[in-house]
Structures are given as C-alpha cells and as structure tokens.
Amino acid sequence: MREYLLGNVAIAKGILEAGAGVVSGYPGTPSSEIVDYLAPIAKEHGIHVEWSVNEKVAMEVAIGASWTGTRSAVTMKHVGLNVAADPFMTLAYLGVGGGMVVISADDPYCHSSQNEQDSRRYAQFARIPCLDPADPQEARDMILRAFSLSEKFGLPVMVRPTTRVSHARADVEVGLPTKRVDSPKFFKNPPRRVALPVHARPLHAELLEKQAGIEATLAEELWNRAEMRGEVGIIASGIAGLYAAEAIAELEADLSLLRIGTYPIPRRSVGDFLERLDMVLVVEEMDAVIEEFVEMVAKERNPDVKILGKRSGSIPGVGELDPLIVRNAIAGMIDLPRKMAPKMSPEALTILPPRPPTLCPGCSHRAAYYAMRKAFGKDAVFPNDIGCYTMGVGMGTVDTCLCMGASITVGSGIRFGGEERPICAVLGDSTFLHSGLTGLLNAAYNGARMTVAILDNSITAMTGHQPHPGTGRTACCELSPPLSLEDICRSLGAGSVDTADPYDLESMIGAFERARDHPGLSVVVAKQACVISAMRAGVRRPRLAVDSEKCGGCKICIKFGCPAIEFDGNVAKINALCSGCGVCAQICPEKAIEVVK
Amino acid sequence: MRTSECDVVVVGVGGQGVILISEIIGRAAMMAGLSVRGVETHGMAQRGGSVINHIRVGCSFSAMISPGSADVLLAMEPVEALRYAHYLSPQGVALVNSRPVMPITVTTGMASYPSIEEILAPLRGICSQVKPMDATGLAEEAGSPQATNVVMLGALSEHLPIEEATILSALSETVPARFLEINKKAFELGKIEVE
Fold first, then answer.
1. How many CB atoms lie within 10 A of CB A442?
2. Which of A277, A344, A457, B71 is the most buried (most CB within 10 A)?
3. Is residue A37 within 8 angstroms of chain B, CB to CB?
C-alpha cells in the first residue's frame, strides 16, 4: 500500500515489516520520530519499544535482544553514536544473532545539533555495512535490506538517514508488519560473546575476512547504479544523488551518473565508471568519504581523469547541499551558465528582524536563569549542557555547551584548572539521567567546589517531549518506579541538595544563594513542569496583565525576554501568548503586573 | 525541463500549523494519483523560530526546492515571506498573511518590525504577483484564528494541480471532525480572497 509518510515513520514501518522484536533509542533530532511512532503501537504488535536512558544503554539493549535471535533496531542522532561508540565498535567483532540495525541520523547544517559529524566514517571505522538513503522510500527499503544483510554477515548494519530524509515526506510503498521470531533464546558461546583478548584476536581477523564478501554483495545492490551518457560524469551519494539527477534533467545535459547508496563503496563499479570518463564531479554532503575513495581508485583505473569535488572547491565542505548548489556545480563543470537565486536588495534584508528559536512563554528555565543570575551574579561561571535551556544563551547564564552531560564535568575541570569565581553548572533532568550522574559522582569524589543546577521539567522537551525515568512512565506509557533526583544526588555525594519552584522566584533565589554559600558540592533542583506538557495535560493558569497606570516603562520585564511581554508606546503589555506563570509580576518593581481575575 | 509540476514553499513561525498544510496537500496529491515530496522543520527551530516547509506536487526527485524555483511562496507571516523570498521563481506568486507575529527580538526592543509596505515592496521586485491578505482575520471570521493555515490553504488551492474537491476531502480526513465546519469555511474564505 502507498502512504504519504515522514521519512522516520517510513523507517519505523520498515522495522515493523522486518519483524523486529526490540527497538530502543534515545531521543535526538532528527531521529526521534522513529521510536515516537512505534511506542504507542508496540503492544498491539507484541514488540518491546523503549526510550533508554542514553544511546550506549540503548545500543546494549538492542545487542542483548539480537543475541536471543530477535531482530532489533536502535535509533539515535549522529552525536549519540559517540556515546554508544564503545559497544558499537566491539559488537563488530562479536557479531549479532538476530539481525540488528543501527540507525544513526546525521544533521548536515547543524539544524538541531552541535556538530556535523558523518556517521559513514563510523561504519568504516567499525568495518560494518552502511546504507545511505536518498528519500523516505529508500529509507524504508534499506531498513528491510539492512536486517537481511545483518543476518547474512552476522554484523550490525548501519542505516544513515540525514535531516532531509528523516524529516522529508513522500508517497511511500510499504508492506504489512511481520511477526517477530518464535522461541527466542540466548545460546551460550563464550568465544563469540565474551570479548576477552584471546577471543577478540581471532574475531578481529574474522571481521577483516568478511570485508570482501560484504563489498561483493553490496556492489549488486540497486542503490548503486550507473547511467552512462558521455565522458563527463557525476558520482553522488544519498540525497545528493537525487539533487544530481534533478540537475541533469533540468539542464538536459548528457552526463553520466553513478549513485552510491551503500558502504563500503563498490570498488569495481567506481573503477568501471571512472575508466570511461575524462572528468568526474563527486557530490556528497559532509565528509569527502567518496571523493577520497575515488581519488584512490582513479590511481589504479584512470589516473588521467580530472576529479572535482570538495578539494577543488566545487562542492562546499560545510553545511548541507541543496538542488541549486549541486545544479550550479554541475553547470560550472560543463561551462553552462550558473543560475542565481533572486537577490534581495541589501536594504530589504536589513529590515528583517531575526527570529531565533526561544524559550517558550512561561518556560520555567527563564525564571530559573533569572534567579541564578540574581544569586550568583553575572561574573560567575555557568557551564551549560544540551537541551531547551541552551537557548537561554542570551541571559548570561550559558557559558559553555560541549556535549550531553558535560556541564558538571567541564565545570569541575574549570574549578581544578584554577578558576576561583563561583561555578554553577546547569543541565536538564533528561540530560542529567543520560550522562550527568557520572559527572556528579566524579565531582563529589574528587571534591569539586561548585553548584549543579538541575532544571527539572520532568520531560525530554527539546526533541518532542519524550518521557525518561524521572517522568514516571515509559515510552509505551507504562508506569515506572518513582525516582527522586534529590535522593540520587545525595547518594552520589552532593553535600547539599535543595529543591525550589522557579515560578516562586524568592524561594528559587534563596535556594541558589544557599547553594552558592555551601563550601563543597551543592545541587539545586529547579522543579516545574515543562509549560508545553502542562498545557497538554490541561493545566490552565489565569493570564496576567499590565496596569498601565502603574507601569513606569522601566522595561525590566521586557529584558526578562518572555515572548508574551511587549512594549507598547511607553508601557509594557502582555499579549495572548501568556501562559500565566506569574514570574513577570514578581520582577516588576512597580507591582504593575497583576493576575487577570 | 521542469522537474516538478508545482513547487510550494510554506513559511511561518513555529506553532502556526505549517506542517498541517503539508499533510493535507500530500494526502490530496496521493488521492489525485500524483507523486509528492515534502520536507519539514522539526526540532529546535520549532520553538518560536522561523520555519520553512517545501512541498513538491508531481515530483519524483528530492523534497528540496531550489532557491529561485518556487511557484508559490505561502507565507503565514509577513517578515517570514521576505526572509524566504529568494525561493521564489520570477514567475512565482507570493500569498502573504499580513498579520505579524512579533519575534522576540522585536518584543525585547533589539530590533523593530517593518511596515507591511516595506515588506511587500521588495517582494514585488522579485516575483510577478504578491497577494497580501488578512488570513488571521478571515480565520477569526470563520470561527477560530487557529484556522489561519487553512485560510492560506484555500488561497493556495487554485495554484495546485489538484481538484478542489480532492483537497477538501484530504482536509476532512486530516482535521478533527469537530473543527471541520470552521476549517471548511476558512478554506472557502481564503479561496474567495484571492479570486
């Protein structure tokens, strides 16, 4: 049947069609909608779907499942694979039982990410196959093929969608779900499942021996296809292959095209293609993975072919490609005129007010930051982390952002490096449970004198409101054991642990002041539900309004930065976005903001 | 040669219901037996940021529209129309909701919001037709400002290579039944506005 599907939903349906029994993941844009789609229907399909606490955990859960003979899939964003790299690398030695697919979604242009790393490199690094879909249909088809390849070679197989595949929609042909395997069982086999050195050495050799077979099999996949139309050609991967095909159609040019959809790259197909060309343009997003390979193969098969790509400056090395960039690179190669997008006059562009993503109206993070600034002063050091709260960068309380969980550890290092000023590390509840726990334990163990603020909104908000152990329910809406962040922090060795509600500014400031004055490691939990979750749960608070008689026009509320507060003439005004958190009423020196009765 | 029958860039602010438009058009295109591609903004930018969706009807290449090629720029918000105007083809049409949504940079006084004429003048310089309309006002007239996106869909409908009846049945399948009457009225008001 044919359906109009989001790329990630096409992937999820592929997982169901393949009869997987276990799907795990940690939320991360652009990968999150795969588990989001599967979790609510897991029960009816008799499969286990979970949001794990981090990507390493998710990977290991999927590995364990695969070792029972059950097909499994694990989802994450590209940087999540760094967290999961440890089990991932050794899994290639030990191998899988039931087919196992690792979905690592890349984000060229860093739409919602801290870097532009290329997961294809990881697949090469681990020496496992990687499939690189160009669109939602290929994503679904590749998932099915990935499971069978995984079982054929006894290895995990990576499927690497990018943002423009995961978040694309298209009419996709999908089939019906199949049932998971019967009678799964873990078979004891220490030489295959225990990575002792004595076992690892022969398994490494075995992994290398598999490579030729993998390359030969992948070379036949229909995603690697050449169309010969002349001595000038293009080699393009994934979505870039579609951009190139469209450009060739639009330009009505006689150009040969080799599309690559699998890794390791089919050496013979590339060589055969290069042999018939005078000039070739390599088009790919992110790293020059194919381009480097083409340079190598060209030395053997056609040293005279002229190679254009990232190294020649024809294709940009950063950001994402689009049809125009690719069209113009191709036109440039064959001396056709470049097409220019309409240029706006510089004056027209200067009138455009920027519209950056911001914390929501009524977001408790804004209030927590306000209280933090009051207690610690702007001169303190604020190591930050990954989550919605990073968007508070304009408030002066976000000094670093490196990777998940790094706020506490980087803060500790800043202290041990010799910084004397107060340090308040900030991270969210989901991030704390993902990889902040070990950092807090380390800070306590090694005596880091600092404060850790956990902004606890009880949800993984940024990626689309996925639950975590602190939420109290699982991905499939089962109740989970109650969890106290405060008890965890005390157990890990924090000397002082305090909780306050950011909507109650006075008590929030008080909590931060006590934490600041504590001589060792202190934790403050700023606890208030995410304003979007609260709204969805039916919480309605009375809105606020400015008494224009009392408003002195000082703009203190405006500087607070809530999108619900505007300046109108000489006075502040509260617009329809107000969610009724009431924090602005507490910061107004004139007491001019009041609840609308 | 043309590589798509109709390329539409839909822009607005996170939370304005841009994705719903893409869903309805996609469904309608499939009912009409046309191949369809789209791409959406998810993640960080959805938090009150500027969002852009591409929709390509009768296209079997990628979902991304080339800058300078869009047949229609459907803007749920005036400055967002200008921000993404470079996607328009010189023969293209800009359908622009004239009701602003103030960005945080304006409400906090770091930037100012241009007048509607300052926004429309450069738009007129780069495409053949610019049609401003108070889509939010029309949605209020239909019964809910939330239906602004469907007013815009109504305005867009005559530019799509899909029968109106097909778009309406896709609309009925997509929006909750209790809001269907409001949405049908919103669609009609949007359509009439550009006739």
1. 15
2. A457
3. no
Q: Are A147 and A111 in contact (CB under 8 A)?
A: no
- Mutate one of A4, A36, A395 to test the B interface: name it (highest B CB count within 10 A): A4
Paired tokens of A435? 């990889």
Structural domain spans, chain B: 6-194
* Nearest one of A508, A583, A590 to A544, comparing CA atoms: A583
Cα distance between residue B84 and residue B50, in whole Å: 10
- What domains are there in chain A, each with its CATH number? 2-219 (3.40.50.970), 225-333 (3.40.50.920), 364-536 (3.40.50.970), 544-595 (3.30.70.20)
Which residues in B lie closer than 8 A to residue A340 (C-beta atoms)?
68
Interface subset of A 549-588, CB within 8 angstroms of B: 555, 558-559, 561, 563, 565-567, 575
- With tokens 């044919």, the residue in question is A2
Comparing alpha-carbon positions, the chain B residue that sits nearest to A357 is B49
Query: How many beta carbons lie within 10 A of that of residue A43, not counting itself?
Result: 13
CB atoms within 10 A of CB A482: 8
Residues 6 or more apart whose Cβ sits within 8 Å of residue A220: none
Peptide bond into B145 cis (omega under 30): no
How many beta-carbon contacts under 8 Å exist across A and B? 192
Residue burial A167-179, b: 16+ Cβ < 10 Å; e: rest: bbbbbbebeebee
Token output for B188: 């009609």
For residue A215, what are the CA distances in angstroms to A387, B7, B106? 40, 39, 56
Q: Is the ipTM of this complex over 0.85?
A: yes
- Which residue among B3, B83, B119 places its CB closest to the CB of A250? B3
Choose from A355, A462, A560, A584 for mutation: most chain B CBs within 10 A: A355
- Put simply, the answer to whether B83 touches A352 (Cβ < 8 Å) is yes
Q: Where are the alpha helices (DSSP H) in A127-180?
A: 136-153, 163-166
Quick one: tokens of A234? 């293009």
Q: Where does B6-194 sit in CATH, by number? A: 3.40.920.10
Per-residue b or e along A454-477, where b marks 16 or more CB atoms closer than 10 Å to that residue's CB: bbbbbbbbbbbbbbbbbbeebbbe
Closest-CA residue of B relative to A361 is B48
Tell me the whole-structure pTM to 2 decimals: 0.96
Residue positions forming the annotated binding site of A for [4Fe-4S] cluster: 551, 554, 557, 562, 578, 581, 584, 588
Chain A nearest-CA distance from B52, in A, is: 12
Q: Does A186 touch chain B (CB under 8 A)?
A: no
**H-helix or E-strand containing A517?**
helix A505-517
**B77 to A69, A356, B74, B80, B100: CA distances (angstroms):** 53, 15, 9, 5, 6
pLDDT per residue, tens digit, chain B (195 aa), is 899 999 999 999 988 999 999 999 999 999 999 999 999 988 766 678 899 999 999 999 999 999 999 999 999 999 999 999 999 999 999 999 999 999 989 988 889 999 999 999 999 999 989 999 999 999 999 999 999 999 999 999 999 999 999 999 999 999 999 999 999 999 999 999 998
CA atoms of A74 and A65, how far apart (whole Å):
11
